[in-house]
Design brief:
The complex is a heterodimer. Chain A is mainly β. Helix content of chain A is about 0%, strand content about 50%. Chain A has a single domain, classed as Immunoglobulins (Immunoglobulin-like), CATH 2.60.40.10. Chain B has no helices and 11 strands. The radius of gyration of chain B is 14 Å and the shape is globular. Classes of the chains: A mainly beta, B mainly beta.
Chain lengths: ~110, ~120
């Protein structure tokens, strides 16, 4: 019940296309869902995050779609650019727990082809 | 921009040796974390630390591991008697809790790569 399942494992998208990464969770206590971007040799960096009181959040080219009833959330990268090539991790946490133990998905290696 | 700094960036050690990984969290942050990422795998939570004590730890964080905040700035992870399977990237993170919401962005360091031979 503590798992966050992420797919696909890897994704190749043409420049300018839409990249979509999906995640699913089971624990209904989760109420904070961040996405992290990680470049090789670097630590994960917060990209965008959502709380379940909204169904969508957009920041620039990045959008999180959230489906509370299905317990799924996804990251959409519009107009994907080669600089977006990185590994993306979804995560989940029960924020009422101030220890904020993030449960991570397995990651998606995204390659944007020029 | 404030950042979490970690040292060393890479450490190679012999099996059975002790290693200490160091982190300097962002100065006004109150919560500190260690995560581990085995090459090509997911990031795994190890431990959280608040108010000078461990607040939560995962099953990975057994007696082999310990954390300490020896002074007002450093946060260390000690791994005793290292094993081959301890080879991983270890990330330190820190967070400042936003008043009233309980949330706050987690800032990660660039990681310390540990190679156990």
């Amino acid at each position: 019940q503590q798992q966050v399942k992420q797919s696909p494992q890897s994704l190749i998208v043409q420049k300018g296309g839409i990249s979509i990464i999906n995640c699913a969770y089971e624990n209904t206590a989760f109420d904070y869902f961040p996405w992290y971007q990680q470049f090789p040799g670097k630590g994960p960096a917060l990209l965008i995050a959502i709380r379940p009181d909204v169904s969508e959040k957009k920041e620039g080219r990045f959008t999180i779609s959230f489906n509370k009833s299905a317990k799924q959330f996804s990251l959409h990268i519009m107009d994907s650019q080669p600089g977006d090539s990185a590994t993306y991790f979804c995560a989940a946490s029960p924020t009422l727990d101030s220890n904020y133990q993030l449960i991570w998905g397995a990651g998606t290696k995204l390659i944007i082809k020029p | 921009e404030p950042e979490v700094t970690q040292t060393p960036s890479h450490q190679v050690t012999q099996m059975g040796q002790e290693v200490i990984l160091r982190c300097v969290p962002i100065s006004n942050h109150l919560y500190f974390y260690w995560y581990r990422q085995i090459l090509g795998q997911k990031v795994e939570f190890l431990v959280s630390f608040y108010n000078n004590e461990i607040s939560e730890k995962s099953e990975i964080f057994d007696d082999q591991f310990s954390v300490e905040r020896p002074d007002g700035s450093n946060f260390t992870l000690k791994i005793r008697s290292t094993k081959l399977e301890d080879s991983a990237m270890y990330f330190c993170a820190s967070r400042r809790v936003s008043p009233g919401t309980g949330t706050g962005e987690l800032f990660f360091g660039e990681g310390s790569r540990l190679t156990v031979l």
